[in-house]
Amino acid sequence: MSGLPDDASLYQQAPCGLLVTDSAGLILRINATMCRWLGVSQAALVNRVKIQDRLPVGARIFYQTHCLPILLVQGSVGQLQMEVRDSAGQRMPVLVNIVRRTVDGKIFDEWSVQAMNERRSYERELLAARKTAEQALDARLDAEAQLRSLNEELSDADRRKDEFLATLSHELRNPLAPMRGAVEVLKLAPARPERESQLLDIFDRQLRHLTHLVDDLMEVSRITQNRMELRREPVALAEIVRSAVEDVDTMMRAAAHTLTVDIDAPNAVVDADPTRLVQVLVNLLTNACKYTPRGGLISISLRVEGEAALIAVRDNGIGLPEHALGTIFGMFSQLEPALRRSKGGLGIGLALVRGIVALHGGTVEAWSAGEGVGSTFTVRLPLAPVQGMPDAEPDAQDTVAPTSVLVVDDNVDAAEMLAMFLHMSGCTAQTVHTANAALSLLDTFRPQVALLDIGLPDLTGYELARRIRALPGGDSMLLIAATGWGQASDRQLAFEAGFDHHLTKPIDFDRLRALLAEPKRPI
């Protein structure tokens, strides 16, 4: 092939020294590379010098005593480390391979000589490259180990944060319970002066707001721990919208906002947890109320688009900057530092909205033309396969017949407020604060209903329920669990222990009235 060196050039300029000697070591042929290393011309070497003459004394002896006998027996010698002397007498380390051949009855030794200084340089480069690669690998492994450790620390911190939020929300329910009880008792009192009624309304509103915050803490911790369970059923979205609007009515009026409701799809039905959906809309409406200047315009609409229902909450409030649209649903997301905000908030409401909507297979989006021009939040939910709801039975007013009730709660204030509410509702109530005190009282007092806290100091409410069921007549008692823990697993534990109902603190007194109005177990 044109452009390639010929055989003679390949031989002469080979990257190693090549030579041929006779059996006595006389150099018969040698290439230019070897001559250059030795600093001697070919004419001065060929047929004039024996190869052993270019070896130091030690190498010459080794050649005579080891190489030649091996060549005689094996016909080759490989990977010999030797030294040769150049024309200036300097020694050069070399690696030698020798092959003995017989041609036309004559013996020839073919030598291949590799300069060790080049090989050592190459080996040094290889070792340096290997060391660099090993250092890089060690650094990568260290970085990965640090990253794993950091991830574990972050996961542990995140887990402890979720556990703290769950515990905090549970503990906050304990003081909320007697406060809610006190408000309900005051509401049952006869007519009072207008000033007192105004103060009671303020206290009631703020207590509901605080309860709402605690509920959000509890729910968001459940979502982050993948422990939220939905209680799905066919739900008419128009009723959900109306319920949410009713819940925020007092707040809207206090802020002098105009809230309009536009239900374009009154018969839209979704398979959902109605309580959670109300929570979603209340959060969105609360945000709209909070971040719209006094006397603003807020609307909520319901329509159907394809196979989905769309609920949109619009306001003409402070709006959203473009950079916030992608992060507004993040946990603890705030538009500005807490110290500069006048409206407060934990920054978890929209994260909770997104989590609940996602559990329903839906999406939520935020849109705003910019700061100061309002915003729109749109919830999209898949419609149920079958549309239409069964006719609802007319609501019956819950009336509480005279009932004897045992209240067991180690929170003295909560127990007393609950007992006061029951007395004012026409019931007979007695309170104790430990499980053993309850069991002792049951020797003389046989109530129709028992309201039991779960976290008692001596026995759990579950164990107390089991022991009550084992007492004579205990099977007929209506047992209601009252606790700060409201997970589905907590309800299941309550039912397995023998409870008929499970209420989460602070107790919804309307719900309690409904339970007390239900037919009792036969006595």
Count of helices?
Answer: 14
User: How many strands appear in the DSSP assignment?
Assistant: 17
Range of helix content: 40-55%
Beta-strand percent range: 15-25%
Distance between the amino and carboxyl termini: 112 Å
Structural class: alpha/beta
- Biggest sheet features: 5 strands, antiparallel
Radius of gyration: 46 Å
Q: In terms of per-residue confidence, which ranges show pLDDT below 50 for 5 or more consecutive residues? A: 336-342, 393-397
Taken from the alpha-carbon principal axes, the silhouette is elongated
Task: Please list the strands of the largest sheet in the order they lie side by side.
Answer: 2-1-5-4-3
Quaternary structure type:
single chain
Mean pLDDT: 83
Write up what this structure looks like:
- This protein has 523 residues and is of the alpha/beta class.
- Helix content is 45%, strand content 21%.
- It contains 14 helices and 17 strands.
- The strands form 4 sheets. The chain has a 5-stranded antiparallel beta sheet with strand order 2-1-5-4-3. It has a 5-stranded mixed beta sheet with strand order 7-9-10-12-11, covered by helices on one side. Strands 14-13-15-16-17 form a 5-stranded parallel beta sheet, sandwiched between helices.
- A hairpin with a 2-residue loop joins strand 9 and strand 10.
- The radius of gyration is 46 Å and the shape is elongated.
